[in-house]
Structures are given as C-alpha cells and as structure tokens.
Amino acid sequence: MLKEHCSVVSHTCIADSVYELVLEGEMTKQMQQPGQFVHVKVSDGLDPVLRRPISIANINQEKSQFTLIYRKQGRGTSLLAEKKPGDQVDILGPLGNGFPVAEAGKGNLAVLVGGGIGVPPLYELAKQLVSKGVTVINILGFQTQGSVFYESKFAELGQTYVATVDGTHGTEGFVTSVLNNEKFHADIVYSCGPTPMLRAVEEGEFAKKVYLSLEERMGCGIGACFACVCHLKDDPEGYSYKKVCSDGPVFRAGEVAI
Amino acid sequence: MSMLNIDLPGLSLKNPVMPASGCFGFGKEFSNLFNLDILGAIMVKATTPEPRFGNPTPRVAETPGGMLNAIGLQNPGLKKVLSEELPWLKRFDVPIIANVAGSTEEDYVQVAKEISHAPNVHALELNISCPNVKTGGIAFGTDPEMAKSLTQKVKAVSSVPVYVKLSPNVTDIVSIAKAVEAGGADGLTMINTLLGMRLDLQTAKPILANRTGGLSGAAVKPVALRMIYEVSQQVSIPIIGMGGIQSAEDVIEFFYAGASAVAVGTQNFVDPFVCPSIIEELPALLAKLGYSHISECTGRSWKKVEQFAHHRA
Ligand SMILES: Cc1cc2nc3c(=O)[nH]c(=O)nc-3n(C[C@H](O)[C@H](O)[C@H](O)COP(=O)(O)OP(=O)(O)OC[C@H]3O[C@@H](n4cnc5c(N)ncnc54)[C@H](O)[C@@H]3O)c2cc1C
Ligand SMILES: Cc1cc2nc3c(=O)[nH]c(=O)nc-3n(C[C@H](O)[C@H](O)[C@H](O)COP(=O)(O)O)c2cc1C
Ligand code: FES
C-alpha cells in the first residue's frame, strides 16, 4: 500500500454522470488482484474530509497506469469530476482483497454479474480470467440506457448481456432476470453491485462458488477504525465480524451477513 | 539534544505525539506503513471486559471539516487484548496507553486492574466520555461525583498512572476535571467527541444507524482548545490534548492552550502518515518560533510572562 500523488492521464465522461479516470503512479506495481480498491482524496484540505473508496477497473502494468470508473453523485465525486489531465490526485492504495482469480480453472465458465457502479471492477476481472483461459459471460445491470458503459469492452472478452430497469436497453429488469432465464451452469459466479442485487445473487445459488464484493461506508479504509464491519452469516448477532475494507471487499457468498 | 522529549506520569516520551484511541486500532495496520517506534506513545482502542461488536452500520458520516462516528466501542475484549494485541505490540519500543471502558464501575475496575499489569502498558486512559454506548461511558463523564468515585476505584487497583478522558458534552468541564483530580487522576486527556447528528436528504432519517454519533476532526479544534485552556489553569495535573489536530502548527496551539502532549485521531484516516510527519516537522517549527524545547510552549496562552524569563523569543 502506498500514499501517492498520481497524475491524471485522461478523464472522460463515458455515460450519464459516469466518468473514466486514468491515473499514473508507482502504486500500479502493487495492483495484482481485480476487485481491490483505492482510497481517493478528492480535494486538498477539509472539504470533504474523508477519502472515497473507488474500485480499480483496469490495470496497465506496462504504462504504470490504472483506471477508475465512478458515478458522480455527491460532494466528493463531483469534486473528483473536476480533475483535468496533468492534475495530481492523492491516492492511498491498493487496498483490500479482491476477487480470487485462481478459483476459476482453465476451461471453466465464469459468470460475472455487475450492477451500476459495481460493474467497473468486473472489467479487470474479466480480462484476467480470459487471459488464463476461463470462459467469461458478463451480465451487466443499469438503470437506463443512458447509464450503460463498457458494454462493447466487456463484449470483447465474452458474451455480454445488459439489463436495464426501465427496459430502454437490453433485457428489461434486473440482472437476476437474465440469470434465471438463461440457466448458465456456471462453475463460478463473481458479483459486485448494490446490496439487494448481491442478496439475490447469493440466494439464487447460481454456482457452487460465488464471490461477492460488498460496499460499506468507510473511515480509514485500512482496517483500523471499525467503521465498515459486518457480521458473519453463521453468527448474525454475535461478536465475530469481518471488515469490508481489509478482510474484503470481496467475500465468498455465505461468509458474511449481507 | 531532543527538543521533543516529555516526561509525564508513567510516560517517558521521545516526543509528545501519539495516535488517539480508536483511530489506530492496536497498531497492526499502521505498522505496515511505518515503524511505530517513532511515535511518542500509542493510545490503543478501548477495551471492555467482554468482546463487543459495537453498533450497526453505517457507523460513520461526514460533516464539514469533520466526521461523526458511532462505532460503539467494538473491541475483542480484555482476554484477547491481554493475550494477543498487547503482546504483539511488545516488538515496538513505544509506551502503550490502554483505553479502559465499560458499562459499570465493576467493568472499569476489572479492565484497569488486569490491563495495568501488561508490561508495555505504561498508563491507563479512563474513557468516561464515549457518547456511543447506551450504558456507562459518558454517564460517568458528565457527573462530577460519579467521575470522581470511578477515578478513585480505578486508582486503587491500577499499577500504572491513570489519565481520565474528559467529555466535551458537559456544561462545566472544569468541575469534572477538578473532581477527577481530587479522585486521584494522574493526568487528563481531552477531548473526546462531541455528540452530533446528520440526516439523509432522501429518507429524512439519520445517516448513522445509531442515530447520533461523536463529532471529531478539524471542526472540533476550537472547542478542544477552549476547554484545555480553561481546565489547565484550574488543575495541576498534565493534559494530553486532542481534537482536530492535523499539523505541527496545531500541536503548538494545543501546547499554548495548556497541553503537555497531544494525540491525533481522525487525521490518521485522511493521512495515515500524519503522526510521523508532525514529529518530523516539529523541531524546525519550534526553532522558527524561537523555542529550544516544546515544553516551553505549554500554557503559554495564559501563563505570566515572568514564568518564561529564561526564554528569549
Ligand atoms: C470497496 C468500494 C468500492 C467502490 N467502488 C466504486 C466504483 O468503482 N465506482 C463508483 O462510482 N463508486 C464506487 N464505490 C462507491 C463510492 O465510494 C461512493 O459512490 C462515493 O464514496 C460517494 O461519494 P460522494 O462524496 O460523491 O457521495 P456522498 O453521498 O456525498 O458521500 C458522503 C459519505 O458517504 C460515503 N458513501 C456514499 N455512498 C457510498 C457508497 N455507495 N459506498 C461507500 N461509501 C459511500 C462517502 O464515501 C462519504 O464518506 C465503492 C465503494 C466501496 C466501499
Ligand atoms: C472512529 C473513532 C473511534 C474512536 N474510538 C475511541 C475509543 O475507543 N476510545 C476513546 O477514548 N476515544 C475514541 N475516539 C475519540 C478520539 O480518541 C479523539 O478523542 C477524538 O476523535 C478527537 O480527536 P480528533 O479530532 O483528532 O479525532 C474515537 C474517535 C473516532 C473518530
Ligand atoms: S474503514 Fe476503517 S476499518 Fe474499514
């Protein structure tokens, strides 16, 4: 983990309120696992105070560059959206434990299920899986046509389904509609997105191995403040816990209570 | 010669800068980032007799210049702190200040008695000011008589000096400070967080699952300074100051107000290297301001000029 001022290589609006931010920095070397995140200080000074957790969407080792894809929603991401090529961004990372690529063997079928701003980390995951000979199917859920991004990039890596809640693009409804309709017989499912979606993916038991990436409000992002804890599934009222930032954000389905 | 070494009851500090309780865990995470030996001391996370899970999430919310937290004293419990967390910290040459919490007097006494015997615990910090637990905690810190009585009971069993952590959520902090001094406290630490709240624009409900939380960070600095200024003139025990410290300049300001050492909390989340940076910057800042030792700054805002006759700034 490093704290570094990374420089903005490019910054592009790729869908309604969705931005692709390419950064260059030494910390790229430490980025191995898809699903890890970085903790971003969006401005100098006190407004806002806390860092923002954003997943690593793409890693380019040759150029020491990595990509973040985020949705502009509140104060922090709005300030981040103002960064221009050449600007410096204070980043802490890489943080957390990502998706276990090793759990998928050559020739396996992996189904990647993403919702909204949960889609970005699946891109690096799909790349790494494909490069080791895993067949990848991507199921990506968005609100509406205008918020869809990276559809063609995912399509280059494997068969890609898009669902929109309002039916303006792809299948109407949720990613689980696609999962229920298509019966993929996946060896492994990896998922990232809003909690209700993760719950549905967990309950659907679409494969023997299912990995979920969780979201929680964070303080430190490194495991020291206990802001981001969750209960274990088999001990939902008890003392045992996991920290989303440092034990996760990716957990095997059934490990933690969501 | 060092400009930063400070001697306080039980604590021989290389420098007066330490991470505040609850903002540094038990040190493990930060030990991956820098050598903990450079810290003046470490105030570890609150310890209660039994393990505590703490409050439901969300446990943090942002505020202008600060944050609210309602962690709820999550900790692995006395047994595990004694058998795992504190022994692990022994690899570092740094005194530990153990933060003692509980729901009843018996809880505090039990934790204080056992934890004070851990070889690397050089002092206790009696947390009578946590705003995020339903029983105990802050209740002891808002009533001078209860605060005094608890201090006496803990002093009676502790084998190391006892610092009492004061709550800012009181009308008259001086009366609490005097009460714990009369109860035998060896020092004070102040301030804990200020009770606050944030609401969600969409749902109209509180953002924190616990509804209220403790405010910390730069936003509380003026409150902390004012309280240290008031209390330090009325007690003769030393104060470890905290509340919104982000820089070496802030540290000096806390000393001027009356602190003899300082702790850094929230800023560790923004910049995990803040403690080492401050420690590195302090000597040059002191020299620039004309001091030869940081102790010359303590209480300078209110001490009479003659008391500083030896210092020619
Ligand atoms: C591990 C992890 C990875 C993430 N990856 C991405 C990503 O790749 N792309 C993306 O667009 N978003 C991602 N998010 C969500 C992102 O962190 C929030 O959208 C962002 O923090 C919102 O900040 P804001 O200031 O714009 O919003 P505000 O609502 O103004 O933020 C207020 C506070 O709430 C916190 N917060 C608000 N929403 C969330 C949320 N959903 N999760 C966690 N904290 C939140 C903020 O960090 C901040 O402390 C991720 C979250 C986590 C935990
Ligand atoms: C997330 C968090 C957890 C905390 N946990 C504790 C605790 O366990 N015991 C305690 O005495 N104080 C606790 N505090 C209070 C801090 O030690 C400190 O008194 C306060 O935050 C003010 O300092 P700051 O503004 O530098 O953060 C906590 C503060 C925060 C932000
Ligand atoms: S955010 Fe601090 S422990 Fe996870």
UniProtKB/TrEMBL annotation, chain A:
Pfam family for this entry, one: DHODB_Fe-S_bind
Keyword DNA repair found? no
Query: Where along the chain is FAD bound?
Result: R52, P53, I54, S55, I69, Y70, R71, G76, T77
Kindly state a single biological-process term from the GO annotations of this entry: 'de novo' UMP biosynthetic process
Q: Which residue windows are transmembrane per the record?
A: none
Q: Which residues form the FAD-binding FR-type domain?
A: 1-101
Sorted alphabetically, the keyword list is:
2Fe-2S, Electron transport, FAD, Flavoprotein, Iron, Iron-sulfur, Metal-binding, Pyrimidine biosynthesis, Transport
Check the record and name the CDD domains matching this protein: DHOD_e_trans
Give the pathway annotation. Pyrimidine metabolism; UMP biosynthesis via de novo pathway; orotate from (S)-dihydroorotate (NAD(+) route): step 1/1
GO MF annotations for this entry? 2 iron, 2 sulfur cluster binding; electron transfer activity; flavin adenine dinucleotide binding; metal ion binding; oxidoreductase activity
Q: Which cofactor does it need?
A: [2Fe-2S] cluster; FAD
Q: How is the cofactor bound?
A: Binds 1 [2Fe-2S] cluster per subunit.
Q: For [2Fe-2S] cluster, which residues are the binding ones?
A: C220, C225, C228, C245
> Subunit structure, per the record?
Heterotetramer of 2 PyrK and 2 PyrD type B subunits.
Function of this protein? Responsible for channeling the electrons from the oxidation of dihydroorotate from the FMN redox center in the PyrD type B subunit to the ultimate electron acceptor NAD(+).
| Family that this chain belongs to | Belongs to the PyrK family.
Please name the HAMAP family in this protein's record. DHODB_Fe_S_bind
This chain belongs to which protein, by name?
Dihydroorotate dehydrogenase B (NAD(+)), electron transfer subunit
The gene name reads pyrK
Automatic annotation (TrEMBL), chain B:
Q: Where in the cell is it found?
A: Cytoplasm
Q: Which reaction does it catalyse?
A: (S)-dihydroorotate + NAD(+) = orotate + NADH + H(+); (S)-dihydroorotate + A = orotate + AH2
- Its principal location? cytoplasm
Which SUPFAM superfamilies has this protein been placed in? FMN-linked oxidoreductases (SSF51395)
**Protein task:** Catalyzes the conversion of dihydroorotate to orotate with NAD(+) as electron acceptor.
In terms of Pfam families, this protein maps to: DHO_dh
Q: Which residues form the active site?
A: C130
Q: How does it assemble?
A: Heterotetramer of 2 PyrK and 2 PyrD type B subunits.
Q: Which organism is it from?
A: Mesobacillus foraminis
Cofactor dependence is on:
FMN
Instruction: Give the taxonomic lineage as stored in the record.
Output: Bacteria, Bacillati, Bacillota, Bacilli, Bacillales
Which family does the entry's similarity section mention? Belongs to the dihydroorotate dehydrogenase family. Type 1 subfamily.
Identification of the protein by name: Dihydroorotate dehydrogenase
> PROSITE patterns given for it?
DHODEHASE_1, DHODEHASE_2
